[in-house]
Amino acid sequence: MAEVIIIGGGIVGLSSAYYLHKKGYSVTILDKGDLKDNCSYGNAGMIVPSHFVPLASPGMVQQGIRWMFNSKSPFYVKPSLNGKLIGWGLKFLKNANAKHVERAGIPLRDLSLLSKSLYHSLADELKADFELQDKGILAFYKTEKAAEEEGHLVKKALELGLDMAALSAAECAALQPGLKLDVLGAVHYRCDSHLYPKKLMDALLNYLQLNGVKIMPNHEVTRIEVAEKAINSVFAGNMAWKADHFVLASGSWSAEIAKMVDMNIPIMPGKGYSFMEPEPEQRMQIPALLCEARVAITPMNGSIRYGGTMELGQINQKINKQRVLGIVESVPKYFPDLKPEVPSMDKIWYGFRPSSPDGLPYIGYSHKVKNLIVATGHGMMGLGLGPATGSLVSELIAGEKPTVALGIFSPSRFN
Ligand SMILES: Cc1cc2nc3c(=O)[nH]c(=O)nc-3n(C[C@H](O)[C@H](O)[C@H](O)COP(=O)(O)OP(=O)(O)OC[C@H]3O[C@@H](n4cnc5c(N)ncnc54)[C@H](O)[C@@H]3O)c2cc1C
After folding, report:
1. Which of 114, 179, 344, 369 has the fewest beta carbons closer than 10 A?
2. Are strands 165-168 and 185-189 parallel, antiparallel or unpaired?
3. Index of the ligand 1 atom closest to the CA of residue 222
4. CA distance 327 to 306
5. What contacts 8, CB < 8 A, 6 or more positions away?
6. Sign of dihedral through CA atoms 274, 280, 284, 290?
């Protein structure tokens, strides 16, 4: 049985392990943490075929600059002379155009739809209830400008065959009776779904452990040995680990590991925050996105999760309370009766979105070493795209034709 080592046990690593195990591979996951928390746990749990426009898109640059001068804004890049950040930023600028958005639409849609259908199969196969629901997401807006932008999105989504509809404020209210609204309207991304990430991750880990996948927490990969253009072994936990194939699924840390085999895959960590609150009296039935505030609200596990902000730059353990306040204060502007409390520091979760400069994931073989597959860089969509990515990784390793064309996701596109 051919052996595969996966570096990283987030949703991408676990999904890859799942589909590889299903195809009969002997799989080991090495993770530097305890596998009880990573970016795949505290996220908003949204599966978003609606997000076929990558973050690198027209208007994002100007909007980003405006946000940089507001301490509570949803987006922040610390001005810095850090060469990595500047290089990433220049690539972002180069990609933030209409041509890139046009080129990315169909591949992103196909990846998302594949993942959504795999999530349904996973729920059956794992016999697990991770609260997967197909109620869509309501993207609420308060301004004419956002209404216009969402209007364009609906038009394009319908062209791509995705189910979406613009609703008036009254139509939104009818969907969630009793939940007071102060909005101009919303677009119902009916094509979207949501789930509770912790239950999903627990179910996957449990299944993998019970079915013979070797899971090694506290095993940080610190060095990779290459011989004859192939990985010979990776070093973790004072040991050399050998396998036939390797998968790089280390989220925001992937760029550093790629460097060990002389690969350049630009990734910046995009820090985001979330916190949970008891469910309000008037139940939120359908998850919400607050368009202008860039906040996500998802009912899960009998509670409600608020999440948002994107601080591009560094991996550190600092909590910027101003950004969390930005989330808290935005909510009643859309839902006057929903007034989340400012969470205490220990209630604030944060994670690092592995963000590529063109807003697209890296999925495919390394061009530097022949037995390494890269599966990372999913940014704000990694939870949703996890199963599709894992399934594609297993197809590549098995030498099968990938279900989704992978050209645009090539890990060597910035070389
Ligand atoms: C506030 C917030 C809300 C979000 N909401 C959504 C959402 O609604 N929908 C969505 O699709 N996405 C969402 N995301 C994004 C999503 O959470 C991420 O894209 C996704 O979790 C990334 O998964 P991953 O497996 O690539 O990385 P991670 O989950 O970060 O896992 C990477 C793993 O690699 C390990 N690792 C790193 N370095 C090493 C090393 N040297 N050796 C061994 N192991 C290593 C780490 O310990 C970690 O366990 C959100 C993110 C945030 C922050």
Report:
1. 344
2. antiparallel
3. 41
4. 7
5. 29, 30, 31, 248, 249, 250, 251, 253, 254, 376
6. negative
314 token code pair: 């560094």
- Nearest CA owner, ligand 1 atom 50: 43
Q: Give residue 281's pLDDT.
A: 73
Q: Is 31 in the pocket of ligand 1 (CB under 6 A)?
A: yes
When the candidates are 2.60.40.10, 3.40.250.10, 3.40.630.30, 3.30.9.10, the CATH number that belongs to 52-83+132-194+269-355 is: 3.30.9.10
Say if ligand 1 is within 6 A of residue 12 CB: yes
Which of 59-63, 256-260, 317-321, 411-415 has the least mean pLDDT?
59-63
In the predicted model, what is the mean pLDDT of residues 161-180?
Answer: 94
The reply to whether ligand 1 has any atom less than 6 angstroms from the CB of 270 is no
**Which H helix or E strand runs over 214?**
strand 214-216
- The alpha carbon of 269 and the centre of ligand 1 are apart by a number of angstroms equal to 10
Q: Which residue has the tokens 């280390």?
A: 250
Nearest atom, ligand 1, residue 308 CA:
1
Q: Is the pLDDT of residue 393 over 80?
A: yes
**CA–CA gap between residue 139 and residue 150 (Å, rounded):** 8
Using CA atoms, how far apart are residues 110 and 6, in angstroms rounded to an integer? 25
* Count of CB atoms situated within 10 Å of the CB of 82: 14
CA dist., res. 295 & res. 19, Å (int): 33
Strand partners, 137: 189
Ligand 1 atom closest to residue 382's alpha carbon, by position in its atom list: 19
